[in-house]
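Ex. 9. Protein: Copper resistance protein.
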Amino acid sequence: MKRHASLLLLLLAALAGATCPAAAQDGIGAWVKAGQVEARLVSAVRGTGTLTALPLGLELRLEPGWKTYWRSPGDAGFAPRLDWSGSANLTEAALSYPAPHRFSVLGFETAGYDTAVLFPIQGKPAEPGKPVDLALTAELLVCSDICVPQTLTLALALPAGPADPSDAANDVARAQALVPRGPNGLLRIDSVRATGTTLEVEATAADGFVSPDLFVETEPPLTFSAPKSVFSDNDRHVRLTLTATEPQPGLELAGRAMTLTLVDGDKAVEAPATASAGGALPVPAGAGLAAMLGVALLGGLILNLMPCVLPVLSLKLMSVVKHGGQAPAAVRAGFLASAAGILASFLLMASVLVGVKAAGGAVGWGIQFQQPLFLVFMVVLVTLFSANLWGLFEVPLPRPLADRLGGEGLAGPFATGMFATLLATPCSAPFLGTAVGFALSKGPAEIYAIFTALGVGLALPYLAVAAWPRVAGWLPRPGRWMATLKIVLGFALMLTAVWLLSVLTAQIGEVAAATVGLLMAGLVLALWIGRSARGVARTAGPALAGVLAVAAFAMPAAVGPSAGAAPVVSDARTRWVPFAESAIRDHVAAGRIVFVDVTADWCITCQANKKLVLNREAVATRMEDPSLVAMRADWTRPDAAIAKFLADHGRYGIPFNIVYGPGAPEGIALPELLSDGAVLEALNKAAGKGA
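Predicted structure tokens for Copper resistance protein:
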């Protein structure tokens, strides 16, 4: 009997040892479970030794689908509440927070942890070298579809003795490494700017960003939206834009002290900051603007080569040919006048944009092509240019216009420069989108400076000839051949008018746009009859042309700006779906890739991207992948949602293409001019695959 009793006692002792880890492992407490969370206290050392600071930890494990919260939980929740009052020989226990994750649910943004987390704790014994008995009452909020407060009572005894590493030492050290601290050489916050309730933070990653996120803490607390990210420099630089949600009236973030936590995967950095007002940077203010002026100059120069500027080359060519055999001074004056026309147009555009922006309206590059009346004006103007090249202005009424467009003075070259600028605005050349986006996100001074640089870039060919006027002497002398050339160039400009009518079709419908086209054909015919006729008919022809031009301007008002408008642009294939920003996050959460194409009928660069890249075999085949959602945002007509989407990404012109996916939830912005390689690389990266 005694023998059986001894065996039973041994068995009970073995079972007790198996269910009490604290007794079996020095420095590791027992797991305590409460609802969907279980917790324990751990120590990186087995004994207190002579340490004045004990490396401890609070370890949590949560059931799948449940989470708990960071020190600043966001729109809902609360941080862990810890009570150490039952402990012995403990004066302080400072808890640190590893970098949190963002949870976005039904428009609410919260920060915290799911699955598992270990909070590092630095405990200070009242008397170093003596035993420490830890007793913690922890109040935690754990949430899934519902939220449940849980209270756990935890304990851990650390005896006096050598502070040898425990089995939890590596886990505590790893948790300490995940706590965001100051500059670490991996991530760096470069600048913090604020305008009203919007915060803009620029940051750099030594090895490039993957999926950066930013958490903002202020006093008194404010909540912020998830940041919008714009990448540059091969993803080594990012601009993050956040907006305070539900701000009190009159809130101004500029000048407010805050703590920023920048997280990118396992990398994180924490930095105190004070938001600067109006775009002032902590680095020399001129450095950013000076660099952008160079970008704008190059963008304006490249704009000369873009398809939408090619029709103006006919006018440039006629101007150059006319200068053949002239004195250098006359050549210089003519080309300087054209450059002045370009600069005047850019300054006029800058003034309009500053005014519209100050009034709270949407601003953007080429946005005037969304207005039917402007399109009609361009159709009429191009038609008149063509008629002038064909020699149809040999009548008294339009003679002043003919003199300005093709006379011997400086008004003609000046008008040519302004016309070049007008037709350049539907294009977005490399570097131009970056420069315009920078300008329109700043104040009036930056807008004027950047647009001046763009104008100088577009005018550089004129300025080059003005600097070396003898170049014009290499051209053939004026002669009878110019009459034939004028006819050819007039037809080239009429092709531009046809393109403008195709854009107008999307605005006012096919019938109304076709009517404008017929009116322009009638205008040319009236000018031709007036030039050929005699007597009263010679005056009646130009008068009729004026009436037809007025009738063309009346057409949009008669049918309305959107009546009968064409549907959203679509390709032969039906892979494209309408743009819906709210659906992007859901698609990404479901593991799908989203390719967003912001385009417009009036954007020549957009059409080139479709023809040369998006509709070609390699990319078009990839777009047919069922796991890829291709969204097309048609900005042919004004659309506030698309304008806001562009502005959120620091863009104010199109084309704009961005790719979202599990590997890039904040999006990968593509260059203005697409290539097969750039698109496929972004799609692979968004899918979480290697480039």
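Check your answer against this statement. Residues 80 and 140 are 5 Å apart (CA to CA).
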